[in-house]
Amino acid sequence: AAARRAACANNLGQLIRATHAFESTHGALPPAATTGRTYAFHGDPLAMFSVHCRLLPYLEQVALYNSINFIAPGYVAVTDFNVENQTAARTQLNVLLCPSDPRGALNPWAPTSYRACLGMGLLRRQPGGSFRASDDGLFVWNTGGEPFREGLSTAAARDGLSQTLAFSEKPIGSGPRGVYSPFRDWAAVDGPSPTINQTADLWLNTCARLTAPIKSGLDAGGSWLLPGGTFTNFFVSAPPNSRVPDCGPGLILVHGISAARSHHPGGVNAAMADGAVRWFSSGTDLSLWRSLGTRNGGEAVTEESL
Asked: pLDDT digits over 16-33, tens only?
């Protein structure tokens, strides 16, 4: 168990080093979702690709990166993969799989155990009545509609790179033939009232009340190629190994509960934005975890609390 935990930490270390190499090349971090180029032949929505896709060249996977068709039609679920990207989507990478996760070898596509931090996973009401996801983590969603628009620079982490989460772990879902498990799967729900700010605590209360979900998602982490809280992102709205099950609206969970969890006894590994990989116990204080998950909240986090 100790060896698997160490190997998992090494994988996370490779991910954060690849992230720094990307930032050195592009002058910015990879976004939580990259918008593909316009697909000229029919009116499908633009495809969205994960942080992990953009990091491939820095994980010694240049050929795999070059095989991805970024002008393919859009998709939001593993059942939607078009023929252009099925080969890439089936290519499993050991660096993206925790050796303690037994579901890695059972998934029909190429899954991942590691998620990029999106922050709190809440919605804020905007002037005019619209809502916007919090976008307060190290990685932010590309909402500009510009193909290959990059994310933030590391300078945006004003709380300090050593006090900002970059990646953590999450179990791979039960898969298409599995049975719903609140530890590794998620549930689609409408969520709190659409007329108010959908805070992290409101989502915690909503997801905590779930008993038998009407619609469960068994595809958590089911592809390293796709973005969102379903596949390659996590939120700090709930603490590590939270007993509150993951839930949220839609197919790719851009807000809601998508908590860091692991198959390691007692906690999770996490990579900080400065490159350090730390161990966080399941009893980590929720306010501390949330402070670490936001890049510029101004919270005071001492070295002793870590």
From this structure: 999 999 999 999 999 988
For residue 16, the cross-strand partners are none
State how beta strands 233-234 and 114-117 pair: parallel
| Token pair 């994960």: residue | 50
Question: Is 157 within 8 Å of 296 (Cβ atoms)?
Answer: yes
Residues facing residue 199 across a β-bridge: none
How would DSSP label each residue in 42-104? S-PPBPEEEHHHHHGGGGT-HHHHHH--TTSBP-SSGGG--GGGHHHHT---GGGS-TT-GGG
CA angle 243, 175, 217 (to 5 degrees): 55
E strands, 204-266, are 216-217, 233-234, 246-248
Dihedral over alpha carbons 75, 80, 85, 88 (to 10 degrees): 100
* pLDDT at residue 172, rounded to an integer: 95
Q: Cα–Cα–Cα angle for 160, 162, 163, nearest 5°?
A: 65
pTM listed for this prediction: 0.90
pLDDT digits (tens, 9 = 90+) for 78-107: 777 777 888 898 999 999 999 999 887 777
Can you tell me the distance from the alpha carbon of 286 to that of 242, in angstroms, rounded to the nearest whole number?
A: 10
8 Å CB contact between 138 and 22: no
CA distances to 171, 242, 294, 296 from 203, rounded to whole Å, are 20, 13, 17, 22
Helix (H) or strand (E) holding 186: strand 186-188
Question: Which residues on neighbouring strands pair with residue 50, listed in sequence order?
Answer: 33
C-beta separation of 119 from 165 below 8 A: no
State the CB neighbour count (10 A cutoff) for residue 249: 16
